[in-house]
Amino acid sequence: MVRAGARTALGALALAVMLVGCRTAPPGKVIGPGADAPWPEQRAALEKLDAYSLTGRVAVAANGEGFSGNLRYQQQPHRSDLSLDGPMGMGGVRVALDGEELSIDTSGGDHLDGGAARAELEKRLGFSLPLAELRWWLLGVPAPGESTVVEGEGAIAVIEQVGWRISIDARAPALGFSLPQRLTATREGARMKLLVDRWQP
């Protein structure tokens, strides 16, 4: 039979171990100035951010058809990698944009480059995806070049660029920024909605 003093000591030891574990658990990496920092400071840092990744869910509608699926996106300084997995003929598609070189790999085992890759991706989505601008829009800022923005509640709420309208429907703290959690990209005959589940550096 364990004495009361021994039980107390064991309990204190277990509590100490738990507290040490909590203190040493790695926090989420912070890149930005803070989700509560003034928006101009956040925007300036976001416009320089060239490496991040996210996972989420996407719903696409175009030409009277649509699909929904999972999305994984990884941005590196000179390369963008996008993975879409969904039903309705979409299957799985892996898209890589390296500089201006585009390639895709399909779940059927096909590998396509250049114009053939763009044509296949447009056929599957129902519209031409603005891949060069996407890396910026996902962060809630316009891509370099001509654009129109509407700010609301201290951050960009709408971006209009290259024929697309991107509405940031909700934001959440992540990576030391207030980043889009839900956004909708629309153009004539096409709509793409994104819900971000997780941001990572």
Number of contiguous helices: 4
| CATH level-4 homologous superfamily of one domain | Lipoprotein localisation LolA/LolB/LppX
Mean pLDDT: 85
The sequence of SSEs as H and E is HHEEEEEEHHEEEEE
Tally of strands: 11
Shape: globular
Strand order of the largest sheet: 6-5-4-3-2-1-11-10-9-8-7
Give the end-to-end Cα distance, rounded to a whole number of Å. 52 Å
Summarize the biggest pleated sheet: 11 strands, antiparallel
What structural class do helix, strand and pairing data support?
Answer: alpha+beta
The poorly predicted ranges are 1-27
CATH structural architecture of one domain: Clam
Q: Which percent band covers the strand fraction?
A: over 45%
CATH topology of one domain: outer membrane lipoprotein receptor (LolB), chain A
CATH class descriptor of one domain: Mainly Beta
Task: State the gist of this model.
This protein is of the alpha+beta class and 201 residues long.
